[in-house]
Structures are given as structure tokens and as C-alpha cells.
């Protein structure tokens, strides 16, 4: 089992930034993909960004490219999402997720953290 706990959400004005954190515990995640998803009110959950815990290229949704950066700190077992140039449409609950490299779906999820961007 992998436990994921997000933090760092809050209220920010448009154009501002936030850094979300996802602390992982339990099973070793050295062979996992870690990702951020988000879900806005009335909308489906959507992919934001992903990173291979062991290294390699990162992956981003088109709507966050150039604004968001996903990274990980192996020593702290934590994944980050640095969000810059935030827009009101970025308002959502942001979820951290994990899956084993050979898995086809993300099967470990955090509880989510609210991000609200005011105009």
C-alpha cells in the first residue's frame, strides 16, 4: 500500500503561484509514476502532470505547460507541483496519485487539496 498526503493548497490571486506537496509513505515508490490530477466543480477529473520517481522525462497537460513544474525529492519521499501564473480556471481540487510502472491506471490517491484562484 502507498499512502499519499497532499498539502499546500489555498487561495491565491490570478497571476500568483502556489507549491503543492505530496508526501508518500508505505511501500517503496522507486518503481512508480507519480502524478497530479485536478477536478473542478461539475467537471471530470483531469490529468495535470506526471513524473517517473526514478527519473526520466516529465509529462504535462497542454494547459499547464510552461506554467507548472512537477518534481520530486527522493530524500523526503515527496512530489511537488509548482504552479505559476495561475488563472481562475485552475481552480480545482488537486489530487496526488501513484501507480506502479507496469500498471495501466493510477490506483493510489491522496485526499486532495483545494486550490482557488481569484480574478
Describe the structure.
- The chain is mostly beta strands and 119 residues long.
- Helix content is 0%, strand content 55%.
- Strands 2, 4, 5, 6, 9, 10 and 11 form a 7-stranded mixed sheet that branches. Strands 1-3-8-7 form a 4-stranded antiparallel sheet, with no helix packed on it.
- A hairpin with a 7-residue loop joins strand 9 and strand 10 (108-109).
- The chain is globular and about 40 Å long.
- The relative contact order is 0.32.
What tags apply to this protein structure?
mainly beta, globular, 4-stranded antiparallel β-sheet, single chain
SSE arrangement:
Blueprint: E1 2-7, E2 10-13, E3 18-26, E4 32-39, E5 46-52, E6 59-60, E7 68-73, E8 78-83, E9 92-100, E10 108-109, E11 113-118
Parallel strand pairs: 2-11
Antiparallel strand pairs: 1-3, 3-8, 4-5, 4-9, 5-6, 7-8, 9-10, 9-11
Amino acid at each position: 500500500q502507498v499512502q499519499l498526503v497532499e498539502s499546500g493548497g489555498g487561495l491565491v490571486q490570478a497571476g500568483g503561484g502556489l507549491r503543492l506537496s505530496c508526501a508518500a509513505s508505505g511501500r517503496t515508490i522507486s518503481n512508480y509514476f507519480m502524478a497530479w490530477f485536478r477536478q473542478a466543480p461539475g467537471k471530470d477529473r483531469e490529468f495535470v502532470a506526471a513524473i517517473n520517481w526514478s527519473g526520466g522525462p516529465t509529462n504535462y497537460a497542454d494547459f499547464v505547460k510552461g506554467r507548472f513544474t512537477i518534481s520530486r525529492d527522493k530524500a523526503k519521499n515527496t512530489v511537488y507541483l509548482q504552479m505559476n501564473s495561475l488563472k481562475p480556471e485552475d481552480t480545482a481540487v488537486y489530487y496526488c496519485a501513484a501507480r506502479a510502472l507496469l500498471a495501466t491506471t493510477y490506483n493510489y490517491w491522496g485526499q486532495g487539496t483545494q486550490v482557488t484562484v481569484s480574478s
